[in-house]
Design a protein that fits this description.
This protein is α/β, with parallel strands linked by helices and 198 residues long. Helices cover 55% and strands 13% of the residues. Strands 2-3-1-4-5 form a 5-stranded parallel β-sheet, sandwiched between helices. It binds adenosine-5'-triphosphate. Residues 8, 10-16, 32, 115, 142, 146, 177, 180-181, 184 line the site of adenosine-5'-triphosphate.
Length: 198
């Protein structure tokens, strides 16, 4: 079984690309999805977060108020570090479990989608790594539309991440997402064929 990393900037098209790989037969493990799973009410990470940040980060139904947490950590590196220390090891072990299950189910390719793959320096354990690259103007546009942000807020999210140039240098395959979904799908097919052939 091949374990492949997939990354890209915020709203660059990672989920869209991952679904295309899934349709071609790959199994997908998405770190973002897992990071929501490990903080469901009653889970160990949820308990740790309530202990450290207080019940004011909970909504009435006991789930985390993600917007509130995002605001807390956006301007507070210490709080961000604390939150990461709670969540990351649990995401990692759940990811390992899911990858093992896909291996046992007989998948030839498992794609692990990690938004901050290069920022977390995970590339050596996840070769090859596929980067979904997207012009900043499209990225900003998609982010504004999907998350209802204004231009300045969208730009702030983009600026908080590693530059695209640096990510390009670190990636093994780059999928350009600046056009329509058909062009995107064609690139996904080509990369999938290369991965299967190596
Ligand atoms: P995040 O970083 O927030 O997890 P992401 O990188 O997974 O985002 P997607 O959710 O796949 O990005 O894409 C962001 C938005 O842009 C979505 O609404 C998606 O449908 C749209 N989108 C992505 N690629 C294209 C494309 N080539 N054409 C049209 N819309 C697209």
């Amino acid at each position: 079984m091949k374990l492949v990393g997939l990354t890209g900037g915020i709203a660059s098209g990672k989920t869209t690309v991952a679904k295309m790989f899934q349709r071609l037969g790959a199994a997908i493990v998405d770190a973002d999805v897992l990071s929501r799973e490990v903080v469901e009410p009653g889970q160990a990470a949820w308990q740790d977060i309530v202990t450290i940040f207080g019940r004011e980060v909970l909504q009435a139904n006991q789930t985390l108020d993600r917007q509130k947490l995002r605001t807390i950590i956006f301007n507070n590196p210490n709080a961000r570090k604390q939150l990461e220390t709670i969540i990351h090891p649990r995401v990692r072990s759940l990811a390992e479990q899911r990858i093992r299950e896909h291996r046992e189910a007989g998948y030839a390719v498992v794609i692990y989608v990690v938004p901050l793959l290069f920022e977390g320096n995970l590339q050596e354990g996840l070769r090859p790594v596929i980067l979904v690259a997207c012009d900043i103007k499209f990225q900003r546009q998609r982010l504004e539309q999907r998350d209802h942000l204004d231009g300045a807020a969208a730009q702030k999210h983009i600026d908080a991440q590693m530059s695209l140039e640096e990510k390009r240098r670190l990636a093994d395959y780059v999928i350009e997402n600046n056009a329509g979904l058909e062009e995107l799908e064609e690139q996904v097919r080509q990369v999938y064929a290369k991965i299967q052939a190596t």
